[in-house]
Amino acid sequence: xxxxxxxxxxxxxxxxxxxxxxxxxxxxxxxxxxxxxxxxxxxxxxxxxxxxxxxxxxxxxxxxxxxxxxxxxxxxxxxxxxxxxxxxxxxxxxxxxxxxxxxxxxxxxxxxxxxxxxxxxxxxxxxxxxxxxxxxxxxxxxxxxxxxxxxxxxxxxxxxxxxxxxxxxxxxxxxxxxxxxxxxxxxxxxxxxxxxxxxxxxxxxxxxxxxxxxxxxxxxxxxxxxxxxxxxxxxxxxx
Length: 239
Fold this sequence. Notes:
The chain has 239 residues and is α+β, with helices and mostly antiparallel strands. It has one domain. Helix content is 21%, strand content 12%. The strands form 3 sheets. A 3-stranded antiparallel sheet has the order 1-2-3. The protein is globular and about 60 Å long. The relative contact order is 0.16.
């Protein structure tokens, strides 16, 4: 039987993935937006160039990244600091009910890292949906459009042959995704970008019928024993 020892040092799996490398690409004239993808080296006998695929592993597969569970992840959306309609405010402390009134060994200590919190400066919500309905293209929309387009041309060559004999059921998959197309899909309620302003560490992703399929990794807490490091470790393997 495995016995959980809380005295064991917290560690999280990190490091590059073998036979591949993480590469960043930026949309035209937007060097502040860096979109990751993975370049996989194929066997030399194939005579094929490296295969580029979608990458959602976050900083954990960067060679220079060292996780610090007491500090959290670095921001992936620096543009939030200058976004119109946002203001910072002092957040409240953690309350017992936030942790389900857990006590003793079951109580997870709050993260000591102090971060500025954002909220709407006025009555107007600052969600991607509200921006889309107002005709505003956000950095997140630019980000996901570029992310959807990475490696798209190669995939479309194969997809066109299959689409010709299939039924679209009303889907409208463009050959090239523009930020404006992203905005329209969100405004119509056909897509979402889950990008809370108080989670600047997340990399924007779009979910909708006219975009790439996304798989949600469900990470459940252990009913027997767990820790912050354990849950982060599960997340790293899930993504």
